[in-house]
Amino acid sequence: MPRRVLHDEFFRRAKAEGYLARSAYKLLEIQQRRAVLGASMAVLDLGCAPGSWLQVAAQVVGPGGVVVGFDLAPVRAEVPGWVVARVGDVLALPASDLLEPLVQRRGPGVLYDAVLSDMAPNTSGAGDHFRSVRLCEAILERLPGLLRPGGSLVYKVFEGEQYPDLLARTGAVFARCKGLKPRATREVSTEIYVVAGGYEPALRHAPKPGGIAPPPPGPGRGWGR
Ligand SMILES: C[S@@+](CC[C@H](N)C(=O)[O-])C[C@H]1O[C@@H](n2cnc3c(N)ncnc32)[C@H](O)[C@@H]1O
To answer: Distances in Å between the alpha carbon of 193 and those of 101, 116, 158?
Structure first.
């Protein structure tokens, strides 16, 4: 079984390049391959502590954007003026609470352009996959009140028996949806990142009688690599 190397290439690069955690390189690779973030966007980062995804998102959106983070733990690092970091349990907060910092900045009627989640349960070895899936389901449940049509979603999940179903349920409401393992993911980890673009919330609703049926759930429309 491969050993978990603590101070690997990405740990050393994070130290040298001023990132708060090596996980910054996971979002940087996702951004490089899928371009989920852009200038001036409104971004929600769930499970944001210690703050390296906040750093990456803040760099990409720039001062014209807004990055809102939530975590069980506080973000202790200093953040730029267009970043808001709050303490909160995503499993307990309704979408309206997760949207509130953006409404404060941009006024009512706004939604996020992208929702990111690097949330992970405390790993105990038993039931980690199921607790991780529960966190992802909490995001999917809240999406209609958080993400604008056409927006993007990135979430981390520990792979296991419920992964194919979770991926299919995500693919059912996005035009493109695919799992991706960034290079910075440790060899011993079962984590995978689901990257979805082109949010289509209307597909959630059952078709009206005589209406056009939504496409069958499933990933793979778009993003061939
Ligand atoms: C791998 S860390 C995130 C690292 C972060 N993306 C970064 O780059 O700095 C996972 C985070 O998920 C948070 N988390 C786990 N369950 C959560 C929940 N229910 N609500 C909010 N945050 C949660 C943990 O507190 C932890 O800080």
So the answer is: 26, 10, 9
